Amino acid sequence: APAGRKRRHLPAGIEHQRPDQEQASPGARTMSNETIQTLAEDGSFGDQVTELWSSTFNFDIEGAVEYRKNIGDENVLMLKTGDGSLAASLAMAPGGQFHGGRSLSMGGIAVVSVKPEFRGDGSGTRLMNAGVNWMHQRGLALSCLYPAVWSVYRRAGYELAGYTYKTMIQLQKLSVRAKDMTIREATTEDHEAIQQ
Prior knowledge:
Elements: E1 14-16, E2 34-38, H1 46-57, H2 61-71, E3 76-80, E4 86-99, E5 102-114, H3 123-137, E6 142-144, H4 151-155, H5 191-195
Parallel strand pairs: 5-6
Antiparallel strand pairs: 1-2, 2-3, 3-4, 4-5
Helix pairs in contact: 1-2
């Protein structure tokens, strides 16, 4: 945090005041007493969250309900306005990534959704900042996401990292000496051999 300013933590379930209009970005609306909490803390918003995901990402309601069931309400974070209405939500999928030969805990950010009437007022950034603090409080070492746009995620501290490689080999061009070899799908029992 810059000198003279306290670092601001926004744990789930804690109400906070938004900055004054002078401190907010141009065009931002001032809303007081926003609440950041998990869907598990207030399940009455379940239908609203799944409807928001469905409309934001253009998938059917049944798919949104199934995704919510799989991710778990304890892993869904919501930003509610001072009047108690839903402004934005995101999901965090707990997992891990291998770095330097060891698995590090990781939170995968998904379905970041902001209602149209709250887009451009900083709601997405505030929710992402709260999400980063939330994952830190849960002891997660890393976070990753696959953004459609960069700006809101960069403001929350994310940056492009990692590489994706795709190698395609035509099987008939492989030179195989053993003609009696069987090709099969790898199983969990093969993991150790594969890592070597």
